[in-house]
Specification:
alpha/beta; Glutathione S-transferase Yfyf (Class Pi), Chain A, domain 2; 11 helices; 15 strands; 43% helix; globular; binds adenosine-5'-triphosphate; binds magnesium ion
Length: 370
């Protein structure tokens, strides 16, 4: 699957834009605040139907405009597809594939595999477990629709159960007790399947991480990760049911797969505590490359790879290694790279491969092949 063209109307700082892409490396160059990351976010919208960042859909409508439209034209084995994402103020967002709107937006997830690395990836190490769960869930959802459907049901029942616990204000009676029973049965069953899929993912993912560690990470250290779950133990069901008293007092659900977490390890030690800043940054790039390789294998495609400000994170030797490995056209399809330092990038890529350059200035783009 390749994206041939991207068109934007009133998306962030772009009023009207039409771009064409080629194979291989696509470089978005421009000073700070010109709109490089916004283009990556537009590609993220076409894949995940939402932003990769914290803004709401409304905040992504260009200031003063009433709607935004993101359109992508894709080619897969000689067949052409058009994906449109349209959002207008208070109305429901519309996603269309070849002119037909989806009834349920989640049916689109997984159709256009994509991996994005951004400077915010450090949140995966530093922030709470929710950020890591979201990342893993997003990885799995791109090739496992059943998992995504189960996860949506789980999240809905969990928020219903939490709302019930709040409304009970610490008091259990017959009617809310039987409603809790019904929620518990479903949460127990779904927790088991969701956490099992996550555990399987991590087991299969670790060899990909090992394969990437030497490429840009460390010379001697080994990289790994673990999955911690209250669910995958023999007495999970009993623990869940026994937690009800505490749940009623605390007015929230304390046990289940929404409490799963992951740790990143370097030589068996937590990366968060023992990794230097540079090692953490390098680890995160290896993590994204591993995600790319994993997804490529699971979907039998070459996902779009988006690297936002990736060179900023690395020393010269690692940049050299990264640019060398990105030139492998057997492994990578289209790679979108942003950089605020045009001269550095031009120098880096010189003689390595042909790239399509997009020079970006205040929402206007000038493109040419090297
Ligand atoms: N809804 C919007 N309407 C108008 N402009 C917007 C909107 N949302 C974001 N922008 C503008 O987009 C610009 C940021 O673009 P972007 O993050 O793509 O920059 P960048 O080229 O990646 O910069 P950097 O090199 O600093 O990362 C900001 O100037 C911001 O004001
Ligand atoms: Mg940026």
């Amino acid at each position: 699957m390749k994206i041939k063209a991207l068109a934007l109307q009133n998306f962030k700082n772009y009023e009207n834009l039409a771009l064409e892409f080629s194979e291989g490396i696509q470089l978005f160059l421009g000073k700070n605040g010109m709109g490089k990351t916004n283009l990556l976010d537009a590609l993220h919208y076409l894949t995940f139907t939402k932003t990769a960042f914290v803004n709401t859909d409304n905040q992504n409508i260009r200031k003063g405009a009433l709607y935004f439209l993101v359109k992508g034209n894709f080619e897969n084995d000689g067949k052409y597809h058009e994906v449109i994402c349209y959002h207008e103020g208070r109305k429901k967002k519309v996603i269309k594939l070849n002119g037909s709107p989806y009834d349920r937006i989640i049916e689109h997830i997984g159709k256009l595999p994509l991996v994005l690395s951004t400077p915010y990836d450090s949140d995966l190490i530093r922030e709470t477990s929710e950020v890591r769960r979201k990342w893993i869930d997003g990885c799995i959802a791109q090739y496992n629709q059943e998992y995504l459907a189960d996860l949506m049901v789980y999240n809905r029942i969990l928020s219903q159960r939490n709302a019930l616990l709040k409304s009970m204000e610490g008091h259990l009676n017959g009617s809310n007790g039987s409603l809790l029973d019904a929620y518990d049965t479903q949460l127990i069953t779904l927790s088991k399947s969701l956490s099992q899929v996550r555990a399987d993912f991590v087991n299969k993912f670790i060899p990909f991480l090992s394969a990437n560690e030497g490429l840009i990470v460390f010379e001697r250290e080994t990289c790994s990760m673990t999955h911690q779950s209250q669910v995958l133990v023999v007495d999970f069901e009993r623990t869940f049911l026994e937690s009800r008293k505490k749940d009623i007092v605390t007015q929230r659900t304390n046990v289940g797969s929404h409490r799963d977490d992951y740790s990143f390890l370097m030589d068996g030690q937590p990366l968060k505590k023992f990794g230097s800043q540079g090692q953490q940054k390098s680890f995160l790039i290896a993590l994204r490359l591993s995600q790319y390789d994993y997804l490529a294998k699971a979907t039998k495609t070459k996902p779009m790879l988006l690297l936002d400000d990736v060179f900023d994170k690395l020393d010269d030797e690692r940049i050299e290694r990264l640019t060398d490995l990105l030139s492998d056209s057997v492994r990578f399809g289209q790679v979108f790279i942003t950089d605020a330092r045009k001269e550095r990038t031009s120098l880096l890529l010189k003689d390595k491969y042909n790239a399509r350059i997009f020079e970006i200035e205040n929402g206007k783009v000038n493109s040419y092949e090297t």
